[in-house]
Amino acid sequence: MGRLLAPALLLAYVVVPVVKAQDPGKIIDQYVKASGGTKALSRIRTLAIEGTFSDAEGKPGSYTLDTKLPNRLYSELLIGEHGLIEAYNGKSAWHRSADGTLGTLTGEEGMQLEAASQVYNTRLLDLKKNKIGTAFIGHVQVKGKDALQVEITTATGIKRQLFFDAQSYLLLKDAASFGGISEENFYDDYRAESGIQVAHRIELHRDSASYDITVSRAVVNGTIGERVFDFPIKSQVQLPDLKALFKEIDENQKAIDKIKENYTGTRSEEETEFDKNGKVSKQERKEYTFFYLNGEEISTLVKKNGKALSEAEQNKENEKTQKRIEEIQKKQAKKEAKEEKAKEEKAGGESKEGKEDDPDIEVFLHVCNL
Question: Which residues constitute the domain of residue 250?
């Protein structure tokens, strides 16, 4: 059977005329014009599409596709309580599988969903500005219609296949891969909605599953809150308010510093040196008294090798300690003056924009110490 097909295939190859490659940019320009024009498409801030379908067993299901500038995307296929969700909130991608498992999409899967969000929201306008590359692949058949296949590549290297009607230039199909699963969308029954053409029939193929969706509602520039695209809050670890957390840590650290000032103590340090044979060549032991001032330890050397320092040596150590105390007191006075000035500026409305939203450097340093 293979021998019979080979000549036929060869003949087909010889007689089919070579089709001259077309400019993908011009094809997309024609698509933009057919879809409503640059002006109408550029006015789209949000687009909400809702539809219904039946699965292979005849169970009814619902379909939702929400997009929002600059790069938000939410797609849902729901059958009863089970639904497949894929979303991109502008920072990260996430999904919910049919069994209800939630997870964040990273790596290539996350980039694929980010790319889909970019394409759906830009509507192929300003390709150069949005760093989207294009390449003409060739003439193909889509559902019995002549189509022009164009491959687009995003700045992250993700590729998608777009198939435009060779007559109307409306989109007949797009195809991509999500986590190794191929997904194809076929579009038909275009109708005008707020000055743009919207497909009212979508045939979605995802791996081996197929969904024939009838669009029942399409809303352009309706209100879509950011919460729609966010990871479900009930399953998300709630992060604390960092400003409040740093403030609490700072207050606790100050309270600890005050308690430490009620205590004093002694500390011993022993230093041993060894020669090349591993024998002790020198051993020195020092004893210190210490206390705390504004959270910082102040130590004074009082003994060496079990013997008290001479009067001259002790006076020298005491002078070092006094100098250290004065340095800490000056630092504290400077800090208090700075805090007082900040309070006055805040009361007078003179604080810099955004300053209150950033943790103070002193707070940050206390956190580092912890």
Answer: 242-344+361-369
